[in-house]
Design brief:
43% of the residues lie in helices and 0% in strands. It is mostly helical. It has 2 domains: 21-111, Fumarate Reductase Iron-sulfur Protein, Chain B, domain 2; 117-164, no CATH class. The longest helix is centred in the middle third of the chain and has 14 residues, at 98-111.
Length: 172
């Protein structure tokens, strides 16, 4: 696929850096990652993926990149566009916890400053307003809806503070 999503672009023509066994080892320590090496590339995960037509690399290719220690996997759309439907994980004949690995990859990518353009803004909006998206009054008027109700976001802020969502820092 040659389209792009956010800051991520197709890998067409990209030359990858040398394989990094340490990265593969790091990923194998993620939840679900301990079974990473059992993947034999049957592609059942990709065949059932509901976002397979929206990403620049299929989930079975992500698994191969992980095995080869290619850190560029953190730059793939699949890491962020995964809907966490667990279809890939349920279809895997090896029982690899693929979706759980993707959660870990999101965390690794975020810590390295690799995120879709809107992610940081959405996180701040959730913290400040309790919403990922704040509809405008004219949008609601066009639909004949009442004004947007005010939210008590104290509990939301408390939860996000407790989980340190706003304290995550970019490394390197």
């Amino acid at each position: 696929m040659t389209e792009s999503w956010g800051q991520f672009k197709s890998f067409d023509g990209k030359k990858f850096k040398a394989l990094d066994a340490e990265f593969t080892n790091e990923v194998s320590k993620l939840i679900g990652g301990q079974d990473l090496t059992t993947c034999f590339q049957c592609a059942k995960c990709s065949a059932g993926c509901p976002v397979s037509d929206k990403v620049n690399i299929q989930i079975h290719e992500v698994m191969r990149m992980l095995l080869f220690g290619l850190k560029e996997v953190l730059e793939t759309d699949m890491v962020w566009l995964c809907t966490t439907c667990y279809t890939c994980q349920q279809r895997c004949p090896q029982g690899i916890e693929i979706t759980d690995i993707l959660f870990g990859l999101k965390n690794l990518a975020f810590k390295k400053g690799i995120t879709p353009a809107g992610y940081i803004g959405a996180r701040q909006s959730l913290y400040d307003t309790g919403r990922l998206y704040a509809p405008t009054e004219w949008e609601r008027d066009d639909l004949g809806l009442d004004p947007v109700p005010e939210l008590n976001i104290a509990d939301t802020k408390k939860l996000l503070d407790k989980n340190k969502l706003m304290k995550l820092e970019v490394e390197e």
